[in-house]
Each structure stands twice: as structure tokens, then as C-alpha cells.
Design brief:
Blueprint lengths: L3 E6 L6 H17 L8 E7 L4 H15 L9 E5 L11 H10 L5 E5 L8 H14 L2 E5 L2 H5 L4 E4 L5 H13 L2 H16 L8 H5 L7 E2 L7 E2 L8 E2 H6 L1 H9 L1 H11 L5 H15 L5 H6 L5 H16 L16 H4 L10
Parallel strand pairs: 1-2, 3-4, 3-6, 4-5, 6-7, 8-9
Helix pairs in contact: 2-3, 2-10, 2-11, 3-4, 6-7, 11-12, 12-14
Length: 342
């Protein structure tokens, strides 16, 4: 029986996230009824609503670049649509970004041409997050406005929410002629906005001309992977190494989700979270961790030997060796954008 199951289901609006929840309900019932010997952990590798592993990897990269979570409040992040010669790209990355980054008091701007809206439910979550953390969430139909004085830019193409809904219905009806027609319409619509691109000129308008450029990869690079795309080749090449670092955080995110699913005890969860941070580059000092634990003093003495062992053993060697207790990753990983709505 598998310990962990990863599911990616991002093509069909209204279906992917619902399927993952239905799947977990089914395996939970199977475990409760004694049919399955254990309840496996589900890792959401991307759905129609969110891309949690990608967006949390993005956040780890931002935390590293800006020197800590405490430095993110007030930073401007521009999540902008960008032109692509392809159509039908999922909405889950922009939705995940606006839902997550607003939890940290950042000033998040969602920019796209008219008609390229994301799911309204996610926008509402972003607004509530911003209100709760002292940040802001705004929308604009101007890429230039979004980039101006931005600390972080994330130019990426996505399909309009309404079009993705229509595509889902067409597939459900088996209307492949309708799908071909929709594809031509969307490609023509995209072509009207070729000026929505991350250029050297736009990058100069960001904070000190040095905004952090993010992308989930692969990017549509003008003159390299396509004739006209999301980003100038010179911009992409300048940020190539940081982009590779951004991508490298995703295995640690998935490892953390797997690891945390094996604990029900909050203190153990915090301990392993600290270990994950050490493995990923040590963004939070041991002193900060120590200072944050006085309320746990009663349990520290009783568990000190176990904790010392955890700190000394590398994360990669411990993933499959912990207790068999299970707790679903979607409840433990509090950065999921829909936690408040579930």
C-alpha cells in the first residue's frame, strides 16, 4: 500500500480539486472500513484551483532572496498575464500566487488584459488575506502599472476562466469540433496582446530596475522557444540561475508535505518543519526556533533526546522511517489557498 500518492489534474475547471477531495474521501472510507491497511497522504501536484507545491517553492525562493519572512510585508508583487503562442494554460499558478502571497502582508497586483479573469472565488480569498495581514490586493488591465516599482514580477500566460469553463463543457459533451473552434478563437485572442511581455524596458521600471523575476517554467522565451513570447531572452538569461534555484525548492516542499503528514503532535510538526528549513538552506536560525518554544518547555525535556536525533539526521534519510500515523497534507500544509474555504 502506497504511503504517498501525487495527483495532478489541472485541465478541467471545477473538476480537478473536486476529484482530489473525492479521492481522499474514498481512500479514507476504505481505511476506516478495514479494506486499506493505511490512509495514504495525497500531495496536490496541481489542480484547477491551485498549484501548491509550485507556489510554496516560489515563496521559499522569495524568502531566501529577501532575507526572511519578516521582510516581505509591504513588498510589491506583480502577478501578470503574458503573451504565449499557445492556449489553454492552467489558471492554477496565478491563482495560487495571489492566494498565498497575500497571506504575508505583501502588496499583490493581478494584471491581465480584459477577459483573462481568474476564478472570482480565489480573488475573494486574496482580498480577505490582504485585509487580515495588512497588505493589499488590487487588479489592473495594465502590465506597465503592475510592473512600476514592483519588487517581484511573475509574468506568465494563462487561459481566461470563462474559456476554460467552456472547454470543460465541450470535452464533457465530446464536442471535438467545438474544441477546435475554441482553440482558434483563443489563439486569435492571445495574438491581440503580444505587447504583454516581460521586456528589458519594463524591467527598468521596477524597484531600482532590479525586481526579482519569477516563473514556474518552462517559459515562452522570445527568439528562443518561440518567435514572440512571455519574456525577452536577455531578461530570462539574466535570471536563469535564480530561476533554477526557485525550481529546486519544490522537492523540499513535497518532502515537507510528506514528512508533516506523519505527525499529529504539533511540537513534532514544528520540529520537522525546522529540519526541512535547515535542509533547504536554513532561513530561520536555530536561535529563533529556540526562542519560539518556551511554551513547550514541559514537553522539551521529555522529548529532547528524540529531537536531537531528528536534528542530526538528514531529511532525505528519514522520509520513510517515521511512525505510521497519518494526517492529510492538505490540512497540515497551512499555506494552501483554500484552507479557509474548506
Amino acid at each position: 500500500m502506497a504511503d504517498v500518492i501525487g495527483i495532478r489534474d489541472d485541465m478541467y475547471i471545477g473538476k480537478g480539486h473536486a476529484y482530489q477531495k473525492e479521492f481522499m474521501d474514498a481512500v479514507t472510507e476504505g481505511n476506516n472500513d478495514g479494506i486499506l491497511e493505511q490512509r495514504p497522504t495525497l500531495v496536490n501536484l496541481q489542480c484547477d484551483i491551485d498549484h501548491p507545491t509550485q507556489c510554496m517553492a516560489d515563496m521559499l525562493h522569495i524568502i531566501h532572496e529577501f532575507g526572511g519572512v519578516e521582510n516581505l510585508k509591504g513588498k510589491k508583487l506583480a502577478m501578470t498575464w503574458a503573451y504565449s503562442p499557445s492556449y489553454g494554460k492552467p489558471l492554477s499558478v496565478p491563482q495560487g500566487v495571489i492566494g498565498l502571497m497575500t497571506r504575508f502582508g505583501m502588496d499583490v497586483v493581478l494584471a491581465h488584459p480584459e477577459g483573462y479573469d481568474v476564478m472570482p472565488e480565489v480573488e475573494e480569498i486574496a482580498k480577505k488575506n490582504a485585509e487580515a495581514t495588512g497588505g493589499s490586493f488590487t487588479k489592473t488591465n495594465s502590465m506597465e502599472e503592475a510592473f512600476k516599482d514592483a519588487d517581484i514580477v511573475y509574468p506568465k500566460s494563462w487561459a481566461p476562466f470563462a474559456a476554460m469553463e467552456k472547454r470543460t463543457n465541450l470535452y464533457a459533451d465530446g464536442d471535438f469540433d467545438g474544441i477546435d473552434k475554441l482553440e482558434k478563437e483563443l489563439l486569435a485572442q492571445n495574438a491581440e496582446h503580444k505587447d504583454w511581455a516581460c521586456t528589458e524596458e519594463l524591467m527598468k521600471t521596477t524597484k531600482d530596475g532590479k525586481a526579482l523575476y519569477l516563473h514556474c517554467l518552462p517559459a515562452d522565451i522570445t527568439g528562443v522557444s518561440c518567435e514572440t513570447g512571455e519574456v525577452d531572452a536577455s531578461v530570462f538569461d539574466r535570471y536563469r540561475i535564480p530561476l533554477y534555484k526557485e525550481a529546486s525548492f519544490k522537492p523540499y516542499i513535497i518532502a515537507a508535505m510528506i514528512m508533516l503528514s506523519k505527525f499529529e503532535n504539533h511540537f513534532a510538526i514544528e520540529t520537522v518543519r525546522f529540519q526541512v528549513q535547515l535542509e533547504a538552506g536554513g532561513y530561520f536560525s536555530a536561535q529563533k526556533f529556540s526562542n519560539s518554544q518556551p511554551q513547550q518547555a514541559g514537553r522539551v525535556g521529555a522529548n529532547s533526546q528524540v529531537l536531537n536525533q531528528i536534528f542530526q539526521i538528514r531529511l532525505q534519510k528519514r522520509l520513510l522511517g517515521f511512525a505510521k500515523t497519518r494526517y492529510s497534507a492538505h490540512k497540515l500544509c497551512r499555506l494552501r489557498i483554500l484552507t479557509d474555504a474548506e
